[in-house]
Amino acid sequence: MIRSKILIGLVRFLRKLGSDFIDKVWRLGAGTRLFGLMLISSGESFRRFRLVVREVYFTGVMSLVIISVSAFFVGMVLALQGYNTLQKYGSSEAIGVLVALALVRELGPVVTALLFAGRAGTAITAEIGLMKATEQLAAMEMMAVSPISRVIAPRFWAGVIALPILAALFSMIGILGGYLVAVPLIGVDSGAFWSQMQANVDWQFDILNGVIKSIVFGVACTMIALFEGYDAPPTAEGVSRATTRTVVTSSLVVLALDFVLTSFMIV
Amino acid sequence: MERTTIDLWVGIFVALGVAALLGLAMKVGNLTTSNIGETYMVEAAFENIGGLKPRAPVKSAGVVVGRVEGIRFDTETYEAIVSLNVDKNYRFPADTFANIYTAGLLGEQYIGLEAGGDEEVLKNGDKIAHTQDAVVLEKMISQFLYNKAAEPAEPTTVPAESTKTEDDALTDNPLDDLIN
């Protein structure tokens, strides 16, 4: 009696595991299909670029405050922590290199993408999920307007445009924050701060690779947000779950992609 | 095509992004010019500058008095010519020593000026005659190892003792006796 109950429980557990896995694979396939469809039908978003500009405003410009404030503090903390360790080895002048490389290579693109997923990705998911729940997307299709080319594609391209810009701003503001802590506050020589930075930050291998990373993150974050919204069950609960999933999935994908990209870039 | 405020904001946003990228591309460089006012330029020739970089500080007695303006290679003497911008407020005798030092064991390199005793002062375009090269760690280590290998294995303690006596001799300065 007890053994059969345990057996049933085990079978249920395995079934749940299997169905969850199949569901994930199904969603991956559906997301890829949506990505392809979106690429094919994104001609309109370039012919009517105003649609994209409007979305750049909502995803990019509106994220400026959170990006700049967090970049400023991240840079300041980097300088403070870096100085604390570097001065033990008598090389506190290398603080500029540390701050700049950490921001340009890693923290700029990654933290921006994480903040972007939280600030803009959730908004995209909730908006599209609600559009679906209130049958606006269905109404568009009824009027022979493709919701993919009218709603999905402009948001995608806006995200791809906005994220690299935000990441570049993040790095720049972070370096300024690091400078403020290192030079006026701690008293590191300002010439050494900048000259060591200039000598050690490579335009191609550090800055360009950072931009490439942020473009890839932009594609991933925006696509996940769009798909979660497009795929959300048309209920209040469904939309809220989709929003949560956007943040979780985007964060994990960004961190995983970061590792893969870094391993490609460091030769 | 009518304009909206959204267009303006997106324009500002994109311009900011381009500016940030440009700033990064210039390696975050031209934002600060050195906060030294009027300067005069002197040159110094070194056989080896080690890892000295342009914009490195020029210090005298530990105080920053200028910056390295540029470094070039002289094909006639096969020496590195380092040009230094020194603050006008600081005057140095013409026989000043220019040394390349390292901040800490592995830190950045800077130029240290040690004043001589000449009546004449360095002027714009002058050349510092007395220089001392950067210490190249590999050279020192290989020299040390070479000496170690060359000397007989037995009396390893002797040089240490001899330096010690030298140190003692230095601390027991005969001048002290004279003064006392």
Describe the structure.
The complex is a heterodimer of chains A (267) and B (180). Chain A has helices at 2-40, 43-47, 49-59, 64-86, 95-133, 136-142, 147-186, 190-200, 203-231, 236-265. Chain A has 10 helices and no strands. Chain A has one domain (50-265). In chain A, helix 7 (147-186) crosses helix 9 (203-231) and helix 9 (203-231) runs antiparallel to helix 10 (236-265). With 267 residues, chain A is an all-alpha fold. Chain B is built from 4 helices and 8 strands. In chain B, 31% of the residues lie in helices and 28% in strands. Residues 29-34 and 164-169 of chain B have low confidence and may be disordered. Chain B has an 8-stranded mixed sheet, with no helix packed on it. In chain B, a hairpin with a 6-residue loop joins strand 5 (97-102) and strand 6 (109-114). Chain B is an alpha/beta fold. Chain B has 2 domains: 1-31; 39-137, no CATH class.
Which chain pair has the greatest contact?
A: A-B, 40 and 36 residues
Query: Major β-sheet of chain B, in short?
Result: 8 strands, mixed
What does the main sheet of chain A amount to? none
Radius of gyration of chain B, in Å, reads 25 Å
Strand residues, percent of chain A: under 5%
Overall tally of structural domains of chain A: 1
Strand order of the largest sheet of chain B: 7-1-4-3-2-6-5-8
Provide key terms for this protein.
heterodimer; A: 267 residues; mainly alpha; 0% strand; globular; B: 180 residues; alpha/beta; 2 domains; 8-stranded mixed sheet; 8 strands; extended
Give a nutshell description of this structure.
The complex is a heterodimer of chains A (267) and B (180). Chain A is mainly α and 267 residues long.
List the helices and strands and how they pair.
The complex is a heterodimer of chains A (267) and B (180).
Chain A: H1 2-40, H2 43-47, H3 49-59, H4 64-86, H5 95-133, H6 136-142, H7 147-186, H8 190-200, H9 203-231, H10 236-265
Chain B: H1 5-25, E1 39-46, E2 57-60, E3 63-74, E4 79-87, E5 97-102, E6 109-114, E7 127-128, E8 130-132, H2 137-150, H3 157-171, H4 174-179
Parallel strand pairs in B: 1-7, 2-6, 5-8
Antiparallel strand pairs in B: 1-4, 2-3, 3-4, 5-6
